Amino acid sequence: MPTLSLLRALLFPAIALTSVWWLAPLTGLWTEDYQTLISVLPYLLGTLLLVLAQVFNQGRLGQMALLVMATYALIQFELQASLEHSERWWVFFWLTLLWPLNAVVVRFLPERRPLSLAGMMFPLALALQLLLIYGLTLTSLYPAVLQWSESFRAAGVGGLLPLPAWLSFSIAVALCANRLPRKADIPLAFITVIVLHAGMFYLFASQQVSALTASTSLLLLFATLLVSNHQLAFIDELTGLPGRRALMNDLKHRHGRYILVMADIDHFKKFNDTHGHDVGDDVLRLVAAQLEKTSGGGRAYRYGGEEFTLLFPSAELVETRPFIEATRERIASYQLTLRDTNQRPASSKDGKKQRGQKSKARTLNVTMSFGAARRESGESIEALMKRADNALYKAKQNGRNRVEDAV
């Protein structure tokens, strides 16, 4: 499942990279009307994305949109002349050097609304960088620094991307790719935007390449924002399973006969009271991981608290009963190790010494009770869930760690 999640997160970045690779050679063939439209498009997309990022509290996506839009505006107003001019090369050199570093800063910023006081720190930092670069031209150091920057012009591949920029972009990609989280949509989108801008600076002489790169980057960020908010609304953050809203949405669009199973962790309150909420969270993750392995077409959801749901496309309970029983037995036989945080090694050296020694950690066994109900023709969702709940209550009454069918 982690591999499948990563492949899904790679879909939009792959589309963005493929689109730019295919469209870049064609920009010179576009009519004047199309060129005018694509020149304005980054500003429209960037403004819309900033508004949505503010509404949905997606600060990093909003700040990246701001960086892309500000970069595009700087190119349009300052870098339309030949880079043979020293003044233009000065701006281009520092832009290619600092842009990926600013992208890394955005990647690791805390989530703050773009238009909040904390969120305004990043655009202020960008403005300060511009002032410092401009201020450097007024000092006695300018001739020497300019000569140093121009020493990379001919050495750069194609003469357009200086060596410091290559290093900066490589470091930025490596930092953003390091330790990708389980929900990797935003980091992968940022990596793609960085790669797109590296390509843009490398092909800087191409017509409309900056507009194409900015528009594609912003469309990718827009799609990532939609995916991210969908996950927040429909995916349970702790377990990674679809949540109650996703379950109800699926049930509303499901017709005919199917099997609904309500499942509940036995004595879950005792786990929390005895071992603490951290262990309780481990139990929930364990159960979710095992429920996700349910075969027979079963799909797992976290209904709420310690309660989960399984949904089967089968029309008969007898068909799904072996799959439910297999899941129940798999959970009951799994031993959850309780780690003593006070005995954790203080260093990797101490950890190596402890390896191979007999562990004194305690283990727990978790069990679940299941209530299964087949949807009857014309039966409402509420009635079906009530019958499944009654079957679950019956399983609890009959000793727990068992499956009961609804009547």
From TrEMBL:
InterPro entries in the cross-refs: Diguanylate_Cyclase, GGDEF_dom, Nucleotide_cyclase, Rev_trsase/Diguanyl_cyclase
Record key words, sorted: Membrane, Transmembrane, Transmembrane helix
Compositional bias ranges of the Polar residues kind: 337-346
Pfam families: GGDEF
Enzyme Commission number(s) from the entry: 2.7.7.65
Annotated TM spans: 40-57, 64-83, 89-109, 121-142, 154-176, 188-205
UniProt xrefs under Gene3D superfamilies: 3.30.70.270
Coiled coil stretches, renumbered: none
Reactions it catalyzes: 2 GTP = 3',3'-c-di-GMP + 2 diphosphate
Region (Disordered): 337-366
Matches recorded under SMART domains: GGDEF
Enzyme class: transferase
Domain GGDEF residues, every copy: 256-407
Full protein name: diguanylate cyclase
